[in-house]
């Protein structure tokens, strides 16, 4: 009799497989759909902010380069003006020294000396040039001060703008992190709930299947038509339980035998330990008796040595006679 017969479709199993397919489809959408995968990020706003920041940095570089060129040009003009002033001062000092050398001698000290007209004109021209150069220097300083004020104002405004952008960027990053965290927590909670629900449904289906297989009368009955037979018969059910009972008794007998063997070995080792302890105790007692006998013999030997020493003192006059003492009795009488 064959048990591999055609079985109709199980509705519970089909529903379970359909639920699994739906869960896998939803998970695939969450992983592979770019809209759901990036729903916590506003990419358009971020791209606009990045473009605006790059344009601003480009404008700042152009402005800095223009300002540097103007500053280099003004430095060259200032150096040229300073060089001309030095040359004019040196020329004026040289002309003054030449005038003193020619017209302010000692022989002309009492006379009233007047400067020549051309020298006077040169001095006046140099004075006018010096005044004009001083005016230009003052104008240059005023212009430089004005440029410094403008640059300082622009730098302060730029710093404030950068600070505002940094604060805005930090707030945006915090908002993105919070949105990411909330989304991940919600996703983890949803996944854990789905996992628990799927596990509970699978466990319920498994228990139902086991219960139907082992205890259901619909599956255990033996209809007349053998082709529609599914499950096991009453005799097979009975043999299975008998086999289980037999296995339980065999396991219990094996455990009892193991316990008995363990008890036997424990008694054996306990007896060996007791014998060893008794023998060690006897050896200790014998060692004590032997030690007492050796102490008694040692004391007797000490007493005998003392008596022998006393006798030697009486007979030979010394306790330890030497070889010279015995040699005096072996001399030739002639």
Automatic annotation (TrEMBL):
Pfam families: RIB43A. The keyword Secreted does not apply. Residues 120-189 form a coiled coil. Keywords: Cell projection, Cilium, Coiled coil, Cytoplasm, Cytoskeleton, Flagellum. The keyword Kinase does not apply. It is found in: Cytoplasm, Cytoskeleton, Flagellum axoneme. Its main location: cytoplasm. Belongs to the RIB43A family. Microtubule inner protein component of sperm flagellar doublet microtubules. This is RIB43A-like with coiled-coils protein 2. It comes from Hypsibius exemplaris.
């Amino acid at each position: 009799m064959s048990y591999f017969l055609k079985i109709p479709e199980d509705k519970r199993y089909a529903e379970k497989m359909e639920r699994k397919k739906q869960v896998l489809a939803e998970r695939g959408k969450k992983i592979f759909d770019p809209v759901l995968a990036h729903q916590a990020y506003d990419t358009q706003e971020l791209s606009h902010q990045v473009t605006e920041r790059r344009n601003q940095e480009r404008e700042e570089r152009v402005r800095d380069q223009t300002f540097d060129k103007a500053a280099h040009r003004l430095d060259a003009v200032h150096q040229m003006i300073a060089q001309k002033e030095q040359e004019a001062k040196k020329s004026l000092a040289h002309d003054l020294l030449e005038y003193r050398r020619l017209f302010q001698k000692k022989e002309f000290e009492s006379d009233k000396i007047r400067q020549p007209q051309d020298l006077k004109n040169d001095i006046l021209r140099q004075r006018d040039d010096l005044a004009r150069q001083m005016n230009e220097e003052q104008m240059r300083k005023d212009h430089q001060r004005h440029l410094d004020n403008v640059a300082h104002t622009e730098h302060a405004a730029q710093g404030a703008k950068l600070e505002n952008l940094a604060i805005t960027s930090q707030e945006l990053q915090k908002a993105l992190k919070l949105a990411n965290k909330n989304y991940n927590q919600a996703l983890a909670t949803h996944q854990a709930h789905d996992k628990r629900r799927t596990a509970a449904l699978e466990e319920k289906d498994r228990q139902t299947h086991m219960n139907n297989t082992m205890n259901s009368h619909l599956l255990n009955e033996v209809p007349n038509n053998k082709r529609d037979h599914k499950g096991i018969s009453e005799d097979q059910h009975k043999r299975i339980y008998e086999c289980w009972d037999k296995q339980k008794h065999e396991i219990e007998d094996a455990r009892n035998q193991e316990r008995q063997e363990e008890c036997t070995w424990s008694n054996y080792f306990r007896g060996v330990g007791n014998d060893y302890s008794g023998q060690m105790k006897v050896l200790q007692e014998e060692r004590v008796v032997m030690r007492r006998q050796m102490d008694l013999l040692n004391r007797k030997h000490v007493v005998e040595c003392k008596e022998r020493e006393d006798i030697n003192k009486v007979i030979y006059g010394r306790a330890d006679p030497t070889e010279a003492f015995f040699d005096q009795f072996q001399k030739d009488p002639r």
